[in-house]
Design brief:
about 5% strand; two-stranded antiparallel ribbon
Length: about 180
Amino acid sequence: MKDEALEQLKYPIGKFQAPEIYSAAYLSAKIEEIASFPERLRVVVTNLIEEQLDTNYRNEGWTVRQVIHHCAESHMNCYIRIKWALTENNPIIKSYDENLWSTLDDNKHMPIQPSLSILDGLHYRLAYIMRNLSITDLEKSFIHPESGATVKVKQIIGTYAWHSNHHLAHITELKRRKNWK
């Protein structure tokens, strides 16, 4: 039971489930989720005070502040990976240690507004490029060095829509549990 509760805290919307078919309707819906993420996040975090921003969403998990900064960093990597996939022939991308990044001073102490601003512009660009991908572009790919997996651009769209919603749920579920407004 304890493991199930921890799993629910880690994955409040469940783990990512890839669709069997990346249909135009599926991709369009996921792009809209990506496009709307910065505003949905801003609505959820705008009234949080410093103490709340420095609250872990689960034991041994990141603080709300770290989650917000992580989203900006992770989604910057997403954008760059898409650009590499579109401009190079199946490149090997650079991975990064998100847990180590989360321990850096900026992730632990910096105000959230700069990362919210990054997400505004970044998600505008992500949605713009994603909405204008050709069928050929959707099939372009990169290689992830940790797993050796080939990842197609169409897969990134679903993954990062999930990633946005996953981290938003960490914050909304924490607010619900703590009865924060």
